[in-house]
């Protein structure tokens, strides 16, 4: 099945609210739990932070960290700011409205850890997003990127949508379906990683619907 970039089917405000209303709690908690298995430094960058659920969860797990949370959607960041305020973490999570694949104003090697959950499939040029993450990471720092993978057929897509979004409304299911269609296969993300000197062993399937890059920059 060929990759199909995500279409814009609603206003940014509606899409941000729809995403926020979907139940990502278990996925976000698992992301941070698996992040905690390896080294976590004090300066973390989250690329494509959305409504900031992961930065909030990270700060709750690790007392000393500060998170720079980046997203290009103003509407999403407005939700994020409210959630961060409610969590009492405005002093530890810094929001920036920027395109995660175009961070030329940000210096190299400024983060101990760069994380991202479900950003890469949104990008027209996924390789730029991964390359930016590597550039921002200091030597010895950790890259922890996760996203959906693209199944081989629409039948497989529909099975995953039914399994993981069957209780959501039709619009949420359509967004999930389009995310699978826009995602990368494991071999595609491994090819991007190889171009950045990340060995394939650090790019693995981490669930029946996700791949993960977990790598220490040398």
Structure report:
By secondary structure, the chain is an alpha/beta fold. The chain has one domain (12-216): Rossmann fold. 40% of the residues lie in helices and 21% in strands. The protein contains 8 helices and 7 strands. It has helices spanning 12-21, 25-35, 53-61, 74-86, 126-136, 154-165, 170-182, 186-194; strands at residues 43-47, 66-71, 93-97, 111-117, 137-148, 203-205, 210-216. A 7-stranded mixed sheet has the order 3-2-1-4-5-7-6, sandwiched between helices. The N and C termini lie far apart (35 Å). The model has no long low-confidence stretch (mean pLDDT 92).
Write the layout of secondary structure elements.
Elements: H1 12-21, H2 25-35, E1 43-47, H3 53-61, E2 66-71, H4 74-86, E3 93-97, E4 111-117, H5 126-136, E5 137-148, H6 154-165, H7 170-182, H8 186-194, E6 203-205, E7 210-216
Parallel strand pairs: 1-2, 1-4, 2-3, 4-5
Antiparallel strand pairs: 5-7, 6-7
Helix pairs in contact: 1-4, 2-3, 6-7
Q: Kindly report the average pLDDT value.
A: 92
Describe the largest sheet. Answer: 7 strands, mixed
Tally of structural domains: 1
Q: What is the number of helices?
A: 8
Short account of what is shown:
The chain is an alpha/beta fold.
Q: What labels would you give this structure?
A:
single chain, 40% helix, 8 helices, alpha/beta, 7-stranded mixed beta sheet, Rossmann fold, 218 residues
């Amino acid at each position: 099945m060929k990759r199909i970039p995500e279409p814009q089917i609603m206003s940014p405000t509606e899409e941000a609210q729809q995403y926020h209303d979907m139940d990502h709690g278990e996925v976000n908690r698992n992301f941070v739990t698996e992040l905690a298995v390896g080294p976590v430094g004090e300066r973390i960058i989250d690329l494509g932070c959305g409504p900031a659920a992961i930065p909030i969860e990270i700060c709750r797990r690790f007392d000393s960290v500060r998170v720079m949370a980046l997203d290009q959607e103003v509407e999403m960041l407005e939700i994020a700011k409210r959630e961060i305020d409610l969590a009492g973490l405005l002093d530890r999570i810094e929001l920036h409205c920027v395109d995660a694949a175009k961070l030329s104003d940000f210096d190299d090697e400024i983060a101990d850890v760069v994380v991202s959950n479900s950003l890469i499939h949104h990008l027209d040029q996924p390789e730029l997003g991964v390359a930016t993450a590597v550039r921002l990471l200091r030597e010895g720092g950790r890259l922890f990127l996760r996203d959906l993978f693209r199944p081989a057929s629409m039948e497989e897509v529909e099975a995953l949508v039914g399994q993981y979004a069957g209780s959501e409304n039709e619009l949420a299911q359509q967004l999930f379906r389009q995310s699978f269609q826009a995602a990368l296969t494991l071999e595609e993300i491994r090819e991007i990683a190889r171009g950045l000197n990340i060995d394939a062993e650090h790019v693995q399937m981490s669930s029946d619907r996700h791949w993960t890059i977990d790598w220490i920059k040398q």
